[in-house]
Q: What sequence folds into this?
């Protein structure tokens, strides 16, 4: 819903990420919201839970999924 307030939580090894890119956001005029953040090099390879919660007035919705961290090549 446009103007819904949305939060995102990403948990690595049972510890929620504190990255500044995971701040609360308001959905745009199309009801869309997105986040981008840096996954620290110390985060182990694997699947990590992601939870997005949006509220608008007295309504709310929750979406849960997984962030997959894979080994990548270093670009130097």
A:
């Amino acid at each position: 819903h446009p103007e819904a307030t949305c939060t995102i939580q990403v948990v690595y090894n049972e510890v929620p990420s504190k990255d500044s890119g995971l701040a609360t956001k308001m959905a745009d005029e199309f009801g869309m919201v997105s986040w981008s953040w840096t996954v620290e090099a110390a985060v182990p390879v694997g699947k990590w839970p992601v939870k997005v919660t949006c509220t608008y007035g007295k309504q709310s919705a929750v979406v849960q999924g997984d962030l997959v961290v894979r080994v990548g090549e270093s670009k130097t």
Q: What stands out?
A: The longest strand covers residues 46-56. The chain has a mean pLDDT of 92. Residues 25 and 34 are 8 Å apart (CA to CA). The beta strands are 5-12, 15-16, 25-26, 46-56, 59-69.
